[in-house]
Design brief:
The structure holds 2 protein chains of 2 kinds. Chain A is mainly β. Chain A contains no helices and 11 strands. Chain B contains no helices and 12 strands. Chain B is globular. Classes of the chains: A mainly beta, B mainly beta.
């Protein structure tokens, strides 16, 4: 089954404790992206990756890191989480981002709380 | 940089009535435009997309959207809503090079409530 998986689905942590949210897709997609969703703000893109070893900043990259060492995985790293990073995070992937782009598939979301 | 505005935060519509959700964008070139739907507790699902060509785009679940360059709009419509259409709807704009988009910006969303 084609899917985007995220782990963990729920996480409560404390300020400053490094964490990683994993994202994996089994569709051989080139394009992957991370978003955070906050009430009244919609989704805001954190980072995106056009392909392996190619990443770029979205609108709200501060406080986050990503890597794309292999096609299927695109982890989101919070080196020193702060309470303002409490949010619902979505990973997404699509075959490409070209004009013939396939649908962008979203993961189920990770609800992160930073105390 | 592009921006996306969904003027209506909340819309209430009766089952069987028509629905139109507004989306305005600010972007210099021809944008990549999308509409997504998010049901409670769920991820996002693509309803339809516009890259070029016919400005009236058909999507899933009976939705359609029309790209109007002169008005910088990409409004979503459905002739007759069903109770299952109650959800939050997001318009999104892709920014990038000539034939691909990298950054994707979403509007703040419109919450649709369907009454009997």
């Amino acid at each position: 089954e084609a899917q985007v998986t995220q782990n963990p689905r729920y996480l409560i942590t404390v300020t400053g404790k490094k964490l990683t949210v994993t994202c994996s897709q089994n569709m051989n997609h080139e394009y992957m992206s991370w978003y955070r969703q906050d009430p009244g703000l919609g989704l805001r893109q954190i980072y995106y990756s056009m392909n392996v070893e190619v990443t770029d900043k979205g609108d709200v990259p501060e406080g986050y890191k990503v890597s794309r060492k292999e096609k299927r995985n695109f982890p989101l790293i919070l080196e020193s989480p702060s309470p303002n990073q409490t949010s619902l995070y979505f990973c997404a992937s699509s075959l490409s981002s070209g004009r013939s782009a396939d649908t962008q598939y979203f993961g189920p979301g990770t609800r992160l709380t930073v105390l | 940089a592009q921006s996306v505005t969904q003027p209506d935060i909340h819309i209430t519509v009766s089952e069987g009535a028509s629905l139109e959700l507004r989306c305005n964008y600010s972007y210099g070139a021809t944008p990549y435009l999308f509409w997504y739907v998010q049901s409670p507790g769920q991820g996002l699902q693509l309803l339809l997309k516009y890259f070029s060509g016919d400005t009236l785009v058909q999507g899933i679940k009976g939705f359609e959207a029309e790209f109007k360059r002169s008005q910088s709009s990409f409004n979503l419509r459905k002739p007759s809503v069903h109770w299952s259409d109650a959800a939050e709807y997001f318009c999104a704009v892709g920014e990038g090079k000539t034939d691909s988009w990298g950054k994707l910006q979403f509007g703040a969303g419109t919450q649709v409530v369907v009454t009997p």
